[in-house]
Amino acid sequence: MNIAIMSHDQRKELMVQFCTAYSFVLAKHTLCATNATGRVVEEATGLKVHLLLPGNAGGAQQIGARIPYNEIDLVLTFSDPKISMEDRDLQYIINLCDQYNVPVATNLATAEMLILGLDRGDLDWRTAMSPKTAPFIV
What we know:
Distance between the termini: 15 Å
Low-confidence stretches: none
Strand order of the largest sheet: 3-2-1-4-5
Order of helices and strands: EHHEHEHEHEHH
Structural class: alpha/beta
Helix content: 40-55%
Number of strands: 5
Shape: globular
Number of domains: 1
CATH architecture: 3-Layer(aba) Sandwich
CATH superfamily: Methylglyoxal synthase-like domain
Mean pLDDT: 90
Strand content: 5-15%
Number of helices: 7
């Protein structure tokens, strides 16, 4: 599955901790991320992450552009509640996920549930929706 990772600056360390804790699950999948988040995750965990543009320079739009084509199967974005309501890119991603039935987590609790479900096979229905079998290509 293709997993997109994003986080606000104040939540990058939490994303690194999450990806470290669940690297055994994430390593089985194709990861892409906005640039700064992807770099810190890749450096801390050793996971291979396809780096997109920085979030505020078009990285979020790159992720969003892939959602309608079923090229993203899961979005993990740890947002800072103080700024998330003002973050148009984040709202755009969440709306697209809602519209195209892509599971999305905006906090640690939901991310853990989705990752554990992914590991159990609970999200295998996503592969039936997508005619593509190739992993995400940057």
